[in-house]
Amino acid sequence: MKLSEIATALNARLIGDGNLEIRRPVHPAEAETAADLALAMEPGALAMLKDSRARAAVVREESKIPDGALAGYIVVGRSRYAMAQLLALFPRPPQAEPGIHPSAVIAKDATLGRDVRIGPFCSVGARAQIGDGTILLSHVSIGAEARLGAACLLHPGARIGERVMIGDRAIIHHNASIGADGFSFVTPQPGSVETAKASHAVEATNQEIVRVNSIGTVILAEDVEVGACTCIDRGTVSATRIGRNTKIDDQVMIGHNCVIGENCMLCGQVGIAGSTVIGDRVVLGGQVGVGDHLQIGSDSVIAAGALIGTSVPPRSLLVGNPALPPQEAYELYRGLRQLGRLVADVAELKRRGGGKSGS
User: Which residues are catalytic?
Assistant: First the structure.
């Protein structure tokens, strides 16, 4: 691909020789030939262009190019977005042989669309449906009556439970579990947790724990991506739902009956307890914890490590534990840092007064 063609695809400005043939995009330090395209959109990478073997690069606006370092380069605005567009021009799809591997076990009444590819040691259950062009890499299991849309990609070890519904173009990464039973149990009489919530004291004991069966399912809309080792539990009676184009990172836990909106981003190790509703375009940073039966309004941003114990209105920006607006949280942290000095000052005042209280 010529450098000029890449610039056109990115809708970006080309400077220099647009006829340079490009083989692959690389970090400037890893360029091996003049056909490599150096990605120099960060200051540290930009400085490496002088000694790089690449003769072409992608840089940000107002970047100062080392003299003589390049024969041509592309200037972009929003670098992260440009990166997404650029890497889409040089895809490296997973290796997936056409057809069905001999070691795969496919139920006789399962329905497979056109050009479905199923890798080694996969299992597809009774009456399951798999849409056109969907790829199952090795060791994927699809439960009975599950439905997968078209052009989905399931990485090795993905587990899709019975009756789960997954929309078109979903990507499910290694060892994700979609549709396990919810963590749902009850005691015959009010137990320790219920009494503790009511009276702020543990006044009961759990003599018996009874399982609540999960007969619901999980529904993922179109273009959802689920990270490695993430777990999404099925609903108790209805469905746990994930909205269109929502992106879920690795090791995320989404409890039973949750509803997640469209275009959300849930970062690594987020935990969402059961029956919580999250609006559209919400961002939860890494290790955010959300309690059960809460609502988080659309367009909210919750910073990494925050703990959410009450419902959150739309467009909230919260940090810390307890989760507070940034200015309130920073004032709280400043006050905590000053406690040591305050204690020392009080001790000094008591020492000067001989430990006696004034009259």
Answer: 256
